Amino acid sequence: MRQLSESSITDAVLDRFAACDDPRFKTIMTALVRHMHDFVREVGLTEAEWMAGIQFLTATGQTCTDKRQEFILLSDTLGVSMLVDAINNRKPTGALESAVQGPYYWEGAPERPLGSNLAEGVKGEPAFYSGRVLTLDGAPVADALLDVWSGDGEGNYDMQLPGQTEMLARGKLRTDAEGRYRFRSIRPASYPVPTDGPVGMMLNRMGRHPYRPGHIHMIVSAPGFQTVTTQLFVSGDAYLDSDAVFGVKESLIIDFQRHEPGIAPTGEAMAVPFHTVEHDFVLCPVMEPALQD
Amino acid sequence: MRQLSESSITDAVLDRFAACDDPRFKTIMTALVRHMHDFVREVGLTEAEWMAGIQFLTATGQTCTDKRQEFILLSDTLGVSMLVDAINNRKPTGALESAVQGPYYWEGAPERPLGSNLAEGVKGEPAFYSGRVLTLDGAPVADALLDVWSGDGEGNYDMQLPGQTEMLARGKLRTDAEGRYRFRSIRPASYPVPTDGPVGMMLNRMGRHPYRPGHIHMIVSAPGFQTVTTQLFVSGDAYLDSDAVFGVKESLIIDFQRHEPGIAPTGEAMAVPFHTVEHDFVLCPVMEPALQD
Ligand SMILES: [Cu+2]
Ligand SMILES: [Fe+3]
Ligand SMILES: [Fe+3]
């Protein structure tokens, strides 16, 4: 076809995929082209707007480094990441829900004994976390692995602290025979996503703030169960209703009980106020039949 | 809203634009989010596919340099550029149609006298171009400017030739009192878009070739008339029906008449075969009333 119009060009592009021998790739690219073209037609995109889009995408790619992923941030702030999460992690009621991993995961945190303090030398109010890992029927899951990380009490991850080359506020823990876990860390604080790149400019122009409510990240796994990457959010945080990356789920909001200086659950005497958190994680078995259809 | 579902997350994202004080930006971002989310839901994008998309976009941004724009190439090869062109350059029948500028424009080509050879030292079969610039009523447009560029007869632009720092096969010409233009260049050849980057990998995986039919680029302008950025395509080219960037329009395909060695239209004696091309350009006035509604 040699004379493509505003409407016929879409099918002309799709016709070109005829020789594609990867059916899934063809399905994805076909849908992508249709939705992109519909978008352009719907808004009547001008040539200047198209060029602004090209420049934005280019700058976004060029902002990415080993330590920074601006396209993931773009996906996060437009709700695409949590949509993909929702589609791929449908859970039965009561089961631990998922949240995105985010950009601050650091492979290889050390495994620590139950009750360890993961936050030696980390700023923030101490918090003692405990609870159980359970099956959907309420049976304990022994030997489940919790891979935990968070920023400090001021909202900064170790990777973001100038000159900090060692891990902070990270560690792995295994549940005991009754499925129990316990560890000490800090109460996490809200923090802004990086705003000095193209995505920050976009948020600003949209009239949006860049803050995430305080949260602690966790990957919970156990043999025979579905691994869950998730976040626990601090109840009462000012940004729970407007998380810049749309990550909050009701079941992931947990209460931090504040205590005056005194004896902590570990038996140690605390000279400063501290928090306690108790939360159980319910895991789904791999190949849960009810989820297969 | 704290419990976002696969369907409610889209409205939750759109609600965040409430404070945006740029109505056009809000319109564009609203449509973009809707179509992106619909795309993700429609194909049921997996987390691995999402990550492949993130990596593709990142690599595309990082392939861009001062001399290469991989996101424009992506837009071109998915038909988005020509769709934007079509929407923004609706022309009455008979008027010169537009085509995309492409990545090989080089600002500041010299103005040359009518009849000049723009292709001194350029590989390829000589071609003598001539014709008129006219109004919709057929009146000549004197002093119209043609800004002309092409690759050589092997499909390479000057910018692509190693060590070539001077312009080749480029120049500006002005029509005479009868609206006539004439210049010598070469007959352009088909060429592949760059295939050594992410877009090349994409085309390959789609089962598509990267070729564009032979064409000469031109920006035609005159005071009081709408400027037209366009391309003229070589009739008979093998890729007219499958241009990798969907640029071909029927009215832009022109005949190259081949002549055995002999006397050229300029009067010079040609020792090699040469071509002649005759084509008129019809320009629309600025603020053409029929196009205003
Ligand atoms: Cu759509
Ligand atoms: Fe985080
Ligand atoms: Fe070209």
TrEMBL record, chains A, B:
Q: Does the keyword Oxidoreductase apply?
A: yes
What region holds the Intradiol ring-cleavage dioxygenases domain? 101-283
GO MF, one term, reads: dioxygenase activity
The record ties this protein, via Gene3D superfamilies, to:
Aromatic compound dioxygenase (2.60.130.10)
Q: Which cofactor does it need?
A: Fe(3+)
Q: Which Pfam families match?
A: Dioxygenase_C, Dioxygenase_N
CDD domains annotated for this entry? Answer: 1_2-HQD
Domain annotation Catechol dioxygenase N-terminal: ranges? 22-95
- What keyword terms does UniProt attach to this protein? Dioxygenase, Iron, Metal-binding, Oxidoreductase
Q: Which family does it belong to?
A: Belongs to the intradiol ring-cleavage dioxygenase family.
The name on file for this protein is Intradiol ring-cleavage dioxygenase
